[in-house]
Write a structure and sequence with these properties.
42% of the residues lie in helices and 15% in strands. With 245 residues, it is α/β, with parallel strands linked by helices. The radius of gyration is 17 Å and the shape is globular. The model has no long low-confidence stretch (mean pLDDT 92).
Length: 245
C-alpha cells in the first residue's frame, strides 16, 4: 500500500486501547496524527499532538478539527472514530441515563467527529472515514451489553447512509468490527467472562490492539478508494462456529 506520508489523520478515543493502537499504526505508516481523548493524561501518552475533547460536545469537536486544520494547512484526510465506552447493565436494571450515555459517546460522538472533519474532505474531494463498531450488536449479543450492542449496530446504519451520501464527493465511510481485544477495558471484565470469551475464539487468543489498527489502515488507504459502506470483522473466527464446541 502507498505510504500515508503527507496525510493528516484524526483519531478519537486515542488515549488508550484500540484508539491508541490505531494512532500508532497510522503514524508508523507516515501520517501526521492528531489524537483526541477526553482524558488529557491518556492523550499525552499517545502522541505529542493531542486534543482534549468530549466527543458528545459538538462545538468542542469542531474546535478540535479547526485546530488540526490550522496546524496542517487546511486538510484532514483520515478520520478514525474510535471513542467509545463498554459498560455493563442488565436489561431490567438499565437506566435511561446509562442508555443515553452509551449512545451519546458511541454513536453521537462518531457523528460529531464526522461532521467536524467533513468540510475539509469535501473541499478537497478526498476523505477516508473509519468507524469502530463491534461484532457485539451487529452479529452477536452478550448479556449485560444491550446498550453497547445497540450503539454498535446503530453505527453501521450511520455508516451505510453516510457512505451513500458522501460517495459522489470522494469520501468513503467504512467500519471495523473487532471481536475481543487485549485492552485495558477487557482486563476489567473479570476472569470468568474473559475465559468464556477466549473459549469462543477458534484462534484461541485475543486480538492485539494493533491488529485492529491495521484493519483501519487498510480502509484509510488510497488503494481502498472503491470500497465504501462496508465492514471488516477482525475476531479470530469467533462468529464462525455453528455450535458451542
Amino acid at each position: 500500500m502507498q505510504s500515508l506520508t503527507d496525510q493528516v489523520a484524526v483519531v478519537t478515543g486515542a488515549g488508550q486501547g484500540i484508539g491508541r493502537a490505531v494512532a500508532g499504526v497510522l503514524a508508523a505508516e507516515g501520517a501526521a496524527v492528531a489524537v483526541a481523548d477526553v482524558e488529557e493524561d491518556r492523550a499525552e501518552r499517545t502522541a505529542a499532538e493531542l486534543h482534549v475533547v468530549d466527543v458528545t460536545d459538538r462545538a468542542a469537536v469542531e474546535a478540535m478539527a479547526n485546530a488540526v486544520l490550522a496546524e496542517h494547512g487546511g486538510r484532514i484526510d483520515i478520520l478514525a472514530a474510535v471513542a467509545g465506552i463498554y459498560p455493563s447493565a442488565p436489561i431490567g436494571e438499565m437506566t435511561s441515563a446509562e442508555w443515553g450515555r452509551v449512545m451519546d459517546i458511541n454513536v453521537l460522538g462518531a457523528l460529531h467527529a464526522m461532521q467536524a472533519c467533513l468540510p475539509s474532505m469535501r473541499l478537497r474531494g478526498y476523505g477516508r472515514i473509519v468507524l469502530m463498531s463491534s461484532i457485539t450488536g451487529p452479529i452477536t449479543g452478550q448479556p449485560g451489553y444491550g446498550h453497547y450492542g445497540a450503539s454498535k449496530a446503530a453505527m453501521l446504519g450511520l455508516m451505510r447512509s453516510a457512505a451513500v451520501e458522501l460517495a459522489p464527493e470522494g469520501v468513503t465511510v467504512n467500519a471495523v468490527m473487532p471481536g475481543n481485544v487485549r485492552t485495558e477495558g477487557f482486563a476489567t471484565i473479570g476472569p470468568d467472562h474473559q475465559d468464556r470469551m477466549l473459549s469462543a475464539i477458534p484462534m484461541n487468543r485475543l486480538a492485539e490492539p494493533d491488529e485492529i489498527g491495521w484493519a483501519v489502515r487498510f480502509f484509510a488507504s488510497a488503494e481502498a478508494a472503491y470500497i465504501t459502506g462496508q465492514t471488516l470483522v477482525v475476531d479470530g473466527g469467533q462468529v464462525l462456529p455453528e455450535g458451542n464446541d
